[in-house]
Amino acid sequence: MKRPTIKIQYDAPVALSFALLCLIAFLVNKFTLGWANSEIFSVYRSSLSDPLTYVRLFTHVLGHTDFNHFFSNMSLFLVLSAIVENKYGSVKLLISIIITAFVSGFIHFVFFPATALLGASGIVFMMIFLASMANSKNGVIPVSLILVAAIYLGKEIWALFLTNDNISQLTHIIGGVCGIIFGKYSKR
Predict the structure, then answer these.
(1) The predicted structure's pLDDT at residue 150
(2) How far apart are CA 98 and CA 91, in angstroms?
(3) Is 6 part of any domain?
(4) pLDDT at 4
(5) Is residue 5 part of a domain?
């Protein structure tokens, strides 16, 4: 009797590669005792003559402050990644990640000069909304999308004004809005 073969498939290459890059950034930061996060994997107001200023507009989504921060972002990210990448395709997901990273990094750079931003939570929020729109049809707004928007964005808008917890609710909101926009225009 022939034994069944088990194959491992790299089923969502963009999402899995992004998660791997986040893990590498996390480990590099640990080995450099925080230098990597402060110099490469955080976005903050810095000189426009510094080439790393432009790099950080994109790479801030790879950095995480500690294992809990990394684990909470990556666990939800990986749950959603196969759904989103299979529905929208690898190229659209990659473009969505790059644009969301840039938009959230640029807004933070311009409007919050005294703080640094890092982490993939804006990307995770973008993917939450892309996943909730995965089965929608043109001209139809799914109730699941309305509930996701009410729960996730409502909570973040509420927290934006009423908490001081060192979490960038604005980045979550930006990620959610990017997800809605990408989901809507990916249908065309």
Answers:
(1) 80
(2) 11
(3) no
(4) 81
(5) no
Range of the domain at 124: 13-186
Q: How far apart are CA 74 and CA 179, in angstroms?
A: 17
Both tokens assigned to 88:
């929208």
Q: Return the exposure string of 77-92: e unless at least 16 CB atoms fall within 10 Å of the residue's CB, then b.
A: bbebbebbbebbeeeb
Contact (Cβ atoms closer than 8 angstroms) between residue 107 and residue 168:
no
Residue listed under structure tokens 């890059």: 21
Residue found under tokens 């938009």: 103
Predicted local confidence at residue 81, as pLDDT? 87
Please give the distance of CA 144 from its chain centroid, rounded to a whole number.
20
185: its two tokens: 């225009």
Question: Which tokens sit at 133?
Answer: 């729109």
Separation of CA 48 from chain center: 25
In whole angstroms, give the CA distance from residue 65 to residue 85.
27
User: Is 166 a domain residue?
Assistant: yes
Q: CA–CA distance from 50 to each of 4, 40, 46, 117 (Å)?
A: 56, 12, 7, 18
User: Which positions of the chain have pLDDT values less than 70?
Assistant: 139, 160, 162-167, 187-188
Q: How far apart are CA 40 and CA 29, in angstroms?
A: 9
Does residue 34 belong to any structural domain of this protein?
A: yes
Domain count, the chain: 1
Look up residue 99 and give its two tokens. Answer: 């644009």
The CATH number of the domain where 91 resides is what? 1.20.1540.10
Asked whether 108 and 46 are in contact (CB, 8 A), the reply is no
